[in-house]
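Notes taken during the Thursday session

The instructor put the following on the board and asked us to keep it in front of us for the whole hour. The protein is EI24 domain-containing protein. We were told not to look anything up and to reason only from what is written here. First, the residues (263 in total):
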Amino acid sequence: MFKNIFNGIKAYFGTFKLISQLGLWKYFAIPILISVVTGLSFVALAYFFSDNLGAFISQIWVWEWGAETFATISTYLGGFLILVLGLILYKHIVMALSAPFMSPVSEKVENHLLGQTEHVHRETSFRQQLLRGIRINLRNLSKELLFMIPLVILSFIPVIGIVFTILIFLIQAYYVGFGNMDYTMERHFNYKESIQFVRKNRGVAIGNGIVFVLMLFIPILGFIITLPISVVAASTETVKILEEKKLIAIKDNTSEKPKEIKE
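Then, after some discussion, the predicted structure tokens were revealed:
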């Protein structure tokens, strides 16, 4: 597990060079626009509605003493909760809508790494890639929220709350790494096979997602560079695993793939 997490992180090294070498920046224009608009929208929501949510939270304090202090804390808490929910939604919205633009990027990375060997790929249209991206990310969002809601509450427990905060971070990293890896997997696996593959390689997903989430905290620049380099990093590592495990079907040898996936 820890080795795979490290591999997921290590895959980021050299991504800028690879993007420039393959001329991939032109593919990122629309995804970057989606990322910036979505990210700034959630920041604006936190800024403008933290007072409203804080006022609602402060109502649970029924005593007069300390009411003003609790109201101030509630305002910051309201902003924090909006940002946490916004971060969760942001990742999945951006990854889902960017799917048709990221799949060609992943394919170019794969062709670069594997050369001109004739591989069998699933042929998918722009619409199919978008629908799969939405399906994968809706699935991941629902599962992430299922874990996150109780963990966010538990994170406010003094001292031991830090453990739950770390779990929140790792869960977010896992599901964002899942989404980045799926841009490659959608050419080789169906929906269920992709889920199976990530479960067997969850460390790589976590490693990829750790860097992704951390980069989002870089003001403005995080919304611009995070998606491009994380997708390229995920693609290089996913292709490496597929090649090592012989999961990329060669023409006239397609029967091997389903057998290998389910082992």
